[in-house]
Specification:
This protein is an all-alpha fold. The chain has a single domain (5-90), classed as Ribosomal protein S20 (Methane Monooxygenase Hydroxylase, Chain G, domain 1), CATH 1.20.58.110. Helices cover 86% and strands 0% of the residues. It has three helices and no strands. α1 runs antiparallel to α2 (44-63).
Length: 91
Amino acid sequence: MPHTNSAKKRLRQSERRRLANRSVLKDIKLQLKKLATLAESGPSDQLRSESILAVKKLDKAAARRVVHANLAARKKSQIARLVNAKSAGAT
């Protein structure tokens, strides 16, 4: 346990940040799972709108450095490939 006041404050701050970051990561993970289920069986227009939302969440998390920028770029690329394959298969 911290002894100094500054160390106690840092502990409080880091705990708040950790919980906030976990919630952002959970939202991203749930959004990606939703995309995966829509890709298997769902309309392509709904898949496209959900992919836009997922990309937005990834961009915000990368801007706040909750996730690494390369992870966000990689996931966005995977989402784009998924949506393009689904829309190409539909036409």
